[in-house]
Predict the structure.
Amino acid sequence: MARTVTAAGAIRKPKAGHSTRLLSSGSLPPLIGAKQLSQARWLLAALVGLALALAFPEPRWLGLAWLVPGAWLAVVAGERRWRLFGMAFVAALVFRLVSLRFLLNMPHAAGAIGGWLALSFYSALYPAAWAWLCAGWLRDGLAKLEWPWFRRLGFGMFAAAAWVALEMLQSRLLGGYPWNFLGVSQFENFALIQIASVTGVYGVSFLVVWASVSLLFAVLQIRRSPANPWSWMADVALPLLALGLVCGWGIVRIAGVPASTKKLTVALVQPSIPQQLIWQGNTGDERLAKVLELSRLALATKPDLLLWPEACAPITAERWPEVFDMVKSSGVPLLFGADDVERVSGSDEVRYFNSAVLLTPDGLQLPSYRKRRLVMFGEYIPFEKALPFMKYLSPIGGSFSAGTEPVQFTLQAGEHTLAPLICFEDSFPHGGREHVSAETDLLVNLTNDGWFGAGPEQWQHAANAVFRAVENGVPLIRCANNGLTCWIDSLGRVRQFYGQETGDIYGAGFVSFEVPLGQALGQMVYNRHGDVFGWACLGWVLGVAGVRRFRAKRGLHTGGGIG
């Protein structure tokens, strides 16, 4: 049995589960965890979290994402249970605080700071739980490498499935917050992300974690057997083969997309109205005048469709004829964001909806689309009746109601069909899928990123949206108040965006895109069948955890690994 010598020279038995188990005689010196580095682990955990944040926009150093999961386990493995979770949570919290720093740009101090801290703490729980779960099973295996290669392989795949399982939960619990999933960091790796058409973004997350954990085992194998330079090959062979096959298939898929014979010219208005101005009740006419001026310039490009972003300008009864006359005289339909009001039958209750409305030269196309996934504190105040003080955390006066179903709009006598999304609805994998049927030609997102000033949120939002195009096999157009106004093709490539020539994506103006439709990709596996892969990962994790718990109760558990 391993023994530890105290400063006084006495011999004592180390406590069960303590990190000194990693220093037992005859074992490999641990990658991280020597006594002189024990206090530095907290700093290392913070650096791991920072590295993961830097993999996302901005600066989007996507290569870091491939190193972080394995490094995360190396930093925290061998610690006692609550110390382990503490280190894991520090890494996750730094990742969230840095990547969500754009929340501090909101022009409402209490909401900005409170929302940044609350959302960072909440969303950090999921990756922290992953590290706690996986590293907790590596107390012996990380240092001694007593597992055979096939058991290390199994653990690497289990760790990847566990990450996916927690992302599945994060996208659904408490309304869901599917922002900056690990796979999203690879949004510019076009060959790799084609797998999302089958597995959703979760397949990319799986491959990144599997490769990263396998790389950790490979490094440890090299340290254990320096005389055998090929000892690491067994750990990385299958992950590399899987990545090669996925990327190869992605390249073939991209090359095989036929040219489209149908095109839709879309003009998009980006008014760049400051959020403080939107909250002022007496600025509606001024904002509408600006949007109409830009719209008339945009209509000179002879588009087939005109888009306004979410919540850019209210259209009062007095100004409605001016808007309708513009649409009627130009013959160009207008899709815009508006507040929709409904009185509940038989009561005095009035409900407000954040809606997308299509105005054609013949009038409104009904029904309008009512946003289904609302932003906490931005569109509704949780527990506002039971906890009235909650309203002070938000600048909104009252809560919107949520819509209940997707809506499709048709253009040019039914020749084209588009499905609207509002705000961060284009971040939900399962939500985006619900809006795309076999007849849908185009996804359109109307959003107001003016809440967050000029910062990384605009590119992070677009990076999330890239996967909705790949998952559903249709182009996606984003019309934003202050960026990123762009169009993304059905393969996930951001083809054009406002400010591309000048480098200023946040300014006011308009842009016109010619978007190809109906490129004969067919209906995607993910669009048809949904989160089969994600649910399978969650089932696998629960099954393994259940078996381990059963074996532990029966006295059969031998420690480490997944078996």
